[in-house]
Structures are given as structure tokens and as C-alpha cells.
Amino acid sequence: MWSLVSAGKEVEVANYGANSGSTGVNGVTAKLVYYDAENPPADIVGKIVVF
Fold first, then answer.
1. What single DSSP character describes residue 26?
2. Out of 4, 16, 34, 41, which could bridge 11 as a Cys pair, Cβ 3.0 to 4.6 Å?
3. Extents of the domains making up the chain
């Protein structure tokens, strides 16, 4: 089962998609950014993007 944890709280997700390949058992840590197509963020490089 896939999950998203932010600030120690598990967040329910409808779908999971990744293009970064496999991660270790500890997962990854990065700044979380919401992608709004009408107002896209200036930079998403190196961040976890939520659509």
C-alpha cells in the first residue's frame, strides 16, 4: 500500500505515480510542493510534487 507522510502525519492519496525509480526502505525526504496547473510553482526540481 502506498502512503504519503507529511510532518509525521499519514495523508490519504488517491493515486501514486513516480518517475524517479526505486528508493531504499527509508524512502525519501524532500520539500513537498502542491502543483496547481492554473498557478504552477516556480520550481519543482528536487521536491516531492503533489498534483
1. T
2. 4
3. 1-51
